[in-house]
Amino acid sequence: MSNSTSVELAAAESISLRIAIVRGQRVLTDADLAALYGVETGRLNEAVKRNLPKFPQDFMFTLSAEEFASLRAQLATSNDALGGRGGRRYAPRVFTEHGALMAATVLNSPRAVEVSLYVVRAFVRLRELAASHVDFAHRLDEMEARTEALAKHQETFSRQASDQFKQVFDALRDLMRPPSPPPKRPIGFVPPSDDASASSDL
Q1: Residue 199: is its pLDDT beyond 60?
Q2: 20 - beta bridge partners?
Q3: Closest among 59, 38, 40, 41 to 101, alpha carbons compared
Q4: Average pLDDT along the chain
Q5: Do 25 and 71 touch, CB atoms closer than 8 A?
Q6: Which residues have a Cβ under 8 Å from the Cβ of 127 and sit 6 or more positions away?
Q7: Cα 156 to chain center, whole Å?
Q8: Over the stretch 151-178, which tens digit does the pLDDT of each residue have?
Q9: Buried-most residue among 40, 54, 145, 199 (CB within 10 A)?
Q10: 31-43 confidence digits (pLDDT tens)
């Protein structure tokens, strides 16, 4: 791996740590994006205001109070990442992958253009990781389902085999039992029963 490739990967990895998920989209805050592009947050937002038609909702949106609180917990960083230690008077804007790229074009600075490539790569990297995790989770589910089916099949087979073996053993035990002896005939004179003498009198 070349030195330049290592630097690019390290930069993308560093940026990916600042990316959060809001409204089901991966985003960067205006403060983070401004820091990456080497400008003040206010200057970034001014450039965005002057070019609002270039920033539809899937490029950039402003957080609600609840979303802002959730973002703070999600990033778990100092206040610097969300606009400075003194806090901010308004909820931040956040930028999706396309919005971050568009912000670089409206700022029109060499640093913003250069860093925007790393930002896009960070978004792509996270997307690829998410896809691989989904694929792995799907394969794991399939494997678990197959294992459960096999276990049930084995359990049914074991039960059936056990019943069949029991029948075989019972049959073998029956064959091993000695036959019952026939009733013994009495030895000597046997007087006829009353029924027999009555029938002879007739």
Answers
A1: no
A2: 27
A3: 59
A4: 75
A5: no
A6: 26
A7: 31
A8: 676 767 667 766 776 776 666 666 666 6
A9: 54
A10: 999 999 999 999 9
Structure-token match 């390290």, residue found? 10
Q: Which residues of 156-172 are buried (b: 16+ CB within 10 A; e: fewer)?
A: eeeeeeeeeeeeeeeee
- pLDDT score at 129: 80
Angle at 80 between CA 94 and CA 18, to 5 degrees: 50
* 8 Å CB contact between 61 and 94: yes
> CB-based contacts of 37: which residues, under 8 Å, 6+ apart?
44, 103, 104, 107, 109, 111, 112, 115, 116
- Tell me the residue type at 80: D
Q: Please state the φ and ψ torsions of residue 198, each to the nearest 5 degrees.
A: -65, -40
Q: Measure the CA–CA gap between 175 and 30, rounded to whole angstroms.
A: 89
59, exposed or middle or buried, with CB in 10 Å at 0-12, 13-18, 19+?
A: middle
What pLDDT sits at residue 103? 94
96, 25 in Cβ contact below 8 A? yes
Kindly list the domain boundaries of the chain, sorted by start residue: 3-126
One-letter amino acid of 54: K
With 0-12 CB in 10 A as exposed, 13-18 as middle and 19+ as buried, what is 123?
buried
Across 4-15, average pLDDT: 60
Query: Is 85's pLDDT higher than 50?
Result: no
Q: Around Cβ 43, how many Cβ atoms within 10 Å?
A: 14
SS3 32: helix
**Structural tokens at position 171:** 């049959």
